[in-house]
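haha ok so turns out i had the wrong file open the whole time. this is the CORRECT one, sorry everyone. sequence first:
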Amino acid sequence: MDYGKTLHLPETEFPMRGNLPKREPEILKFWEDNDIYNKRLELRKDSKPFILHDGPPYANGKLHIGHALNKTLKDIIMKYKTMTGHYTRYIPGWDTHGLPIEHAVIKNTGLNRHEMAPLDLRNKCKEYALNCVEEQKQDFIRFGVLGEWDRPYLTLRPEFEVKQIGIFGEMAKRGHIYKGLKTVYWCTHCETALAEAEIEYAEKKSFSIYVKFPYVSEKTVTLPAGVDASKAFAVIWTTTPWTMPANVAISVNPELSYSWVQVGDEYYLMATELVESALKDAGITEYNVLNTFSGADLELATFKHPFVERTSTVLLGDHVTLEAGTGCVHTAPAHGEDDFNVVARYRKEGIIDLPIVSLVDPVGKYISAVDEGRYGDTEFPLAGVEIHDAEVPVIKILAHNNALLHKSSLRHQYAHCWRCKNPVIYRATEQWFSSVDGYRQEALNAIDNQVQWIPKWGHDRIYNMVRDRGDWCISRQRTWGVPIPVFYCNECGEYVINDDTIKSVQSWVAKEGSDAWWAHDAKKLLPEGFTCPHCGHDEFRKEPDIMDVWFDSGSSWSGVLEVNGLDVPTAMYLEGSDQHRGWFNSSLLTGVATTGHAPYNSVLTHGFVVDGEGRKMSKSVGNTVAPSDIIDVYGADVMRLWVSSADYQGDVRLSKDIVKQLSEVYRKIRNTFRFLLGNLDDFNPNTDKVAYADMSEFDQWALLRLEEVRNKVTEAYENYEFHILYHTIHNFCTVDLSSIYLDIMKDIMYAESANNQARRSAQTAMYEIVKTLVAMVTPVLSFTAEEVWKYMPKEDGMSESVMLQDWPASHPEHYNAELAAKWAKLLALRGDMTKALEEARQNKTIGHPLDASVTVYAEGDAFATLNALGESKLAAFLIVSEAHLVEGKAPEGSVVSAESGIGVVVTASELEKCERCWIHRDSVGHDAEHPTLCERCASVIKEA
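then structure:
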């Protein structure tokens, strides 16, 4: 008789190999065919909502691993919240307007936007955006993210645009919108103003020049007596020679000390503390400091521009520091924020009205006025020259006019356009702004008192940004976007925006989308019979600019949540940490400016994905890992496991080696499920369960550990600390289950009769484990959990999908502190004893642990603990054939534990080995019918 066939070995159709790249699409189809997402919503329709509002990625290009991290984190949270009884509608969306898309269309098609009709360009952009949305959508679905993919929100949809225009109108009505001349970031390549959130910094090589401005006059004389004024100069330092034609002033700090310094027969004005470093930089070692005085004494002194017939007035400003240069700051208000502000302050206070000299056109070329009023070297015309190409000519002009003290170069961090990656400039232009001062304090109050920031440092980051930020430049000189809904009177030139104009524009946009702005003239877009409230005229023109895309996405709380009848403020926004200055910021400002509160109650941020060595991922370095690199080889669940494994609050490391390691972790978790399912093949949870009170103590311990794990995992989900649940579940599978519980229970599961009480007790514990464990991993290992759910035995009333299950209920009755303490001691002692068994195996004293006879020498508490277990259970606990317990000190030759003091002697069992269960027992051969079996196995065979 083949006794091996009488064993109840694990049997399941749940595959050993995941083969996830092939199997996961089948599960996606199951979710879609069975409408699992909507069934999930229907199940929770009367429950408390938890809405995580999706921050829209750009509909441009392919998804990168950062998208995968972001969307997977959101999906983990939403699946957990669903299981814990929340209504979790998830509406994914896309940012479909603005420069990134327009730039891509122009680049891909080679079209000249200046030669295209606006509606033609907009149609091309719309087509491109919608194609990108479709491609990205399929990838997001492949990640295992459940949501309303058949009806996502798009910022180009009329219902969204209507809300956005309404927010603009409300902000204007409250006095938060104005048009003004200001110095803003400007990309000459993209030909548009940029917001601070659209700026990134990269290294740039720049000229470093010291320039002499000839002395003219002073209000308070600081020039020492007897000095030849024609040889006196204020010395400025700049890294942007191209801005020299626009200079109108020199700024000094009133709190700093300044000096006139003699160098040869010339005299230089500079900050006292910078004399040594500035002159050293210029290669000058011999000089004489003639005097010292306050910067305040220099106010309104005048110097001559080095090559333009214009004076340069000294202004006082606290933006002047001792970090570099001379303490005399070249001030061109058309090309610097601090420069503009100091000139504007003097204008506002009525002290002096200096001009804003703007000589650069939208594409970064000098206009013809740049050559007006020049003196000295006028042979090289600057008009029409690109500003960076003009830097060498400007330096040559300075040198010819004896105004160049020194020239060198330096490398420094410089502002670049986030889209085209080219250096940007400051440029004074008329733009539309939101005056943040009007609602700054309300925004800071919301940051302090309304919003939970996860992690907590997010509070300080956004608080400081909002506290210190200037006005928000919200106009863009492009075509693909939502128009700034403002009209200009042709008669008086005043701009008009009020409730009537906004409502009229909204009605047109609702019907035709924002294309209506370009399709119709102002008269048609305005209410019938509308006249200028300033002069009564009835002829108007439209504002040509569009809104900043951050205004688009910053309006999504209204364009998505309000449109869909969802609560505002919503439960959570979740994006990368760069969004403190992006989407979190713009959403906060539009929300506070129009409603008085933030549109979110919590904000969770994650770091960036870096390579295994902590370096930024870059195609040029070759260290990028695309989502498809993981999914096509290992499956989306391994990628999702990676997301859960990292403490995402900092930067998250990823490499091929890391993915390989995680695939091994996944394999162990999968094999744990497979072993559990295999042992439940003949278990019907509706009829075979054993009551908790009737279960074996070891099975009760297993449920105790399960309860501890459930509590820890639940807390980790609640605190969004997914790396904690990852480690907790991994350790539970590999240590508590595989190495201890499931290993010890093999004899009972395999060798006892099918309906044996001990076996059914163990199956009851295993069923609770698999039922709880599959639920706990569902938010992370969604595909695998669904697969496990398909193959596991079901109780009556269980749903068709694990996605529709409740979170595992707490079982406080399974936690017994006395039992926990007892088994903690036993497991610690087991660890000491198994070391001796491993040593005996390595010494070839035994082959398999069941070949062993173990004698344990113990005293005190250790002896009492083991003695309470009994020798028979001790043998089963150690998975050996014989166990003998002796009270007393261990003899020489024992393996003694330094921790517990117990000694262990391992010898080969001299008893006969049962052919069926492999345990050496003295009862082998007692049954004549089955002479090679032990008494237990013979009995099981006869009962079968």
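The longest strand covers residues 199-217.
again sry for the mixup
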